[in-house]
Structures are given as structure tokens and as C-alpha cells.
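User: Last request for today: this protein with protoporphyrin IX containing FE, please.
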Amino acid sequence: MGLKSTADRYGAMIVSIHWLSALLIVALIASGFRAANTVDPVAKAAILRVHVPIAIAVLALTIVRIGWRWAYDRKPNPVAWMPRWQEFTARVVHVLFYVIILGMIASGIGIVALSGAAPMIFGGEGALPDFWKYPPRVPHGIGARVLLALLVLHAGAALYHHFVRRDGLLSRMWFTGGSRSQLQRGRS
Ligand code: HEM
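Assistant: Here's the final one, the structure of the complex with protoporphyrin IX containing FE:
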């Protein structure tokens, strides 16, 4: 398996970034909700000390992913039997992922910058502010729920293809296997 994607499967670079980002985003959603539901400021700051660096790692991975796709890589072909509406929905969900992830990072940075909470989170100095007093907290909360819904839709579709259709679509996004090349439609 090479670093670059081919007509019938994703390459090692995109596969690695995909699963690492997935893992980190699940950790972000869990740690974010945990922080929001924690009243004790010391415990909340400790959770945010993990939450913020993970989010910066996701930003770095997303930039590398976009740059790699733009400069070196192309998506594998759509599979021939997939109805157009499913292909279209998948594309919309993929674009929305980028928009929401980058929006979450921007609003997260906005919350910390406007509230001046960085010294409290990372240096343990002073009391944590009430983040809800700062406008980016609202889109950060809405984005978190939309992201969760997209994840359920995305993972549900992948599992449907794997276990119900048994079409090898999920293995295109893994290090071994790949869907049958005779099912490919014209390269996009
Ligand atoms: C993809 C990136 C991110 C995801 C998925 C994410 C996820 C979440 C979630 C699920 C919540 C709880 C929302 C709620 O209960 O309404 C949250 C809260 C929060 N996040 Fe993030 N976040 C991300 C990026 C960031 C970044 C980059 C920062 C800061 C630089 C940040 C700082 C915070 C803060 C300060 C809170 C508020 C905690 C509270 O209200 O007590 N987040 N995040």
C-alpha cells in the first residue's frame, strides 16, 4: 500500500490521518462535554489542559490533510452501484466535517482568547471565568452537537456498507483490503 490513494482505495497518508483524527475528535467531544459539566474549577482546568492541545493537534492534522489532498492526492473513484443521492449525501457530510471542525477550533480559540483563560488553564493562576459570558461559547456548543450528529451519520453509513451491503467500502479506508476495482465508476 502506497502513501497516495489509487483509483480504488485511499492511500496510507489519508488512512492514517483519518483514523487518528477520528480518535482525537471522539476524545475532544468527550473531554469537552466533561469540562462543561464539571463545576470544580481545578478539575475543569485539568480537563481543558488536555482538550485544548488535542484540538490543536486536530487542526494540524486537518491542515496536513487538506494540503496533501490539494497538492498530491485524489479521491478514489466512486463505486458504480452507489445511488447518486448517497454519493451526494456523503460529499455534503464530508464538506460539513471540515466546516464544523474548523469552526469548532476557531470558536474554541475565541472562547479562550476573549476570556483570557489561558493562564488559568495552563498556569493554574486565578479563577476560571464563566465561558458562557463570551459569544463564541454558543456556536462551540451548537457545533459540538452538529459534529456528534454527523459522526453518527458517517459511522452509521460506513457500518451499513460493511455489514449490510458487504461491499468493501469501509476497507478502502483501512491499511489492508479495498473495494473491488470492477465496481469503480469514472475517476472524479
Ligand atoms: C474540533 C475541535 C473541538 C471540538 C470537537 C470540541 C468539543 C467541545 C465540546 C463537545 C464542548 C462542550 C460543549 C457544550 O457542552 O456545550 C467543548 C467545550 C469547550 N471547549 Fe472545545 N472543542 C474543540 C476545540 C476547542 C479549542 C481549539 C479550544 C480552545 C483553544 C476549546 C475550548 C473549549 C472550552 C473553553 C470549552 C468550554 C468548557 C465549559 O463551558 O466549561 N475547544 N468543546
